[in-house]
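REVIEWER CHECKLIST
Item 1: Sequence provided? yes
Item 2: Single chain? yes
Item 3: Sequence as submitted:
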Amino acid sequence: MKQKKYGAFSWEALRKEAVRVAEKEQPLKNLLEQLVIRHEGFEPSLTAILANRRLFAHEGIDLHQAIAGALEKDKNIAENAVYDLLAIVEKDPAASAFLEPLLFYKGYHSLELHRVAHWLWLDGQRYLACYIQSRTSQLYGVDIHPAAQIGKGIFIDHATGLVVGETAIVEDNVSFLHGVTLGGTGKETGKRHPTIRKNCLLGANSTVLGDIVVGEGSIIGAGSVVLHAVPPHSLAAGVPAANKGNIKIPKPANSMNQIFDDYTI
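Item 4: Structure as written out by the authors:
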């Protein structure tokens, strides 16, 4: 992968970090060799990492081939995966370098597997896409429908319990805490799941239901149930959620700050 537009991300620097860790933490040496060190670029390493969990070990399905094929035919998958890594390192104080989330963050792994499944869905391979969705959900506790549209620079913190419905749209630079649901309200057809505009922060165990829009740069408070549209740069909280005020900063997704008094004006 060319490095010209990825800022702090460098494949060679990440690879050198893997070598350093392998020398220091010997039990990880073989794993790091297989997943990172032996690869000449980001795409084959990402493919090896996503296929490594043996999701399909007992079914005879070649997940490695499916992922590699998707990344080869759609370069946006790997590009968006880099932007997701950049978002994690920027937003998560627990992530000191790119290697850690690349190897170990289930929110990252489930999101990148979704990107592969989404490509397969659009390519007409819908059963394989749904199979990847199903097994990813079983392994990581994250259930994202293959048809859901998700932008780049996404951070899914902790990830357990995240549910994203079929017609949901998530724009760039959105941050999720665990337990978030982007769901429907019943048996309606057509566009029936939320649209989350860019730079939003969705708190832990928050629920957004129906074909509604959460405006750009907004916050959904932890545990809230949102049933109506949220204006841009607003804070919505409660059950059902109500507008608690306007937000002072343009990108709450970057700060990850969920103390309401620090935001509203």
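Item 5: Key structural point noted by reviewer: DSSP finds nine helices and 15 strands in the chain.
Item 6: Recommendation: ____
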